[in-house]
Structure formats: structure tokens, C-alpha cells
Write a structure and sequence with these properties.
two-stranded antiparallel sheet, 4 helices, Four Helix Bundle (Hemerythrin (Met), subunit A), mainly alpha
């Protein structure tokens, strides 16, 4: 049981009790899975650096060529996942308090979508596999439910 102080500017400080459901473990599994996906993508970037001769600290291939585009697609797929990740984790962890099963399922969709997106991006299709982002929109709804319950129950 976790006690958190909450306040609105027009109300006195109150304490809200949050009970973390046992099913929240599935949410935590998604956090670990997300880390695995990001590390897999990072390894792909490392392999592409070696294959295409891109040295640190260059983030992208310094030249314009077909080889450069191939490397940049691998790098960009990983970068895109990193850009979406803070929001995903916030929505997953907060939304999972009220809707652990829905959040866990949405997290799986999101993580699988990140893998699919990366594989399509590696082929040059920057818009392939974006179906995984539907998971994040469901998580936004779960987060809204958690906020509602904290504020009004």
C-alpha cells in the first residue's frame, strides 16, 4: 500500500491510498521487455556501425550514398524508439495501476510494434510497423482512468 499526498489548488491537502494490484507484475514484465527491445535495437546499430564504417561520435553516416541511407535507417529506427519511450513508460506505469491487464496487453502490442517498425525501417520503410503505437494510445486512456480515480474516488 502506497500513500501519496494529493492536492488541488482549491482543496486542502488530502492523502490518497493506492493499492497496487498483483497483476501489476505483468506491467513490470513489459518494462523489462521494453529494455530488451531497446538493447536489441542498440546492438543492430552497433553491427551497422561496423558494417558501414560509421565511427563514434557520428550519430549518422557522414556521406550521402545508398550505404549511408541503410545505416541511417538502422540508427533512425533506434532513435525513434528512444523518442517514444519516456511517454510509453510513463503511461504504462501509471495506467497499469488501474488497468493492469489492459496496460500489460497494450505494452505487448507496443513492444512488438517497435520490433516490427525497426525491421521495416531497416528495409527503408519508415512507416512500416507503426501499428504498435496503438498500444500507447490505449495506455493514455488507462492513465486517464488512474488520474480520474485518484482525483475523485
Amino acid at each position: 500500500m502506497l500513500l501519496l499526498p494529493t492536492s488541488l489548488w482549491f482543496v486542502k491537502m488530502v492523502v490518497t491510498e493506492i493499492t497496487i494490484p498483483r497483476a501489476y507484475a505483468l506491467v513490470i514484465v513489459n518494462v523489462v521487455l521494453n529494455w530488451v527491445v531497446l538493447m536489441w535495437q542498440a546492438l543492430q546499430v552497433g553491427k551497422a556501425r561496423n558494417k558501414y564504417g560509421v565511427k563514434y561520435p557520428d550519430l549518422y553516416h557522414p556521406k550521402r550514398s545508398e550505404e549511408a541511407t541503410k545505416f541511417n535507417c538502422v540508427q533512425r529506427a533506434h532513435q525513434n524508439s528512444l523518442e517514444w519511450n519516456p511517454g510509453f513508460l510513463a503511461f504504462l506505469l501509471i495506467g497499469g495501476i488501474s488497468c493492469p491487464y489492459v496496460a500489460a496487453a497494450s505494452g505487448l502490442v507496443y513492444n512488438a510494434g517497435r520490433v516490427a517498425h525497426a525491421k521495416k525501417y531497416y528495409e527503408g520503410n519508415a512507416h512500416g510497423g507503426l501499428w504498435g503505437l496503438y498500444g500507447i494510445f490505449v495506455l493514455m486512456g488507462c492513465t486517464g482512468i488512474t488520474a480520474w480515480r485518484l482525483a475523485f474516488q
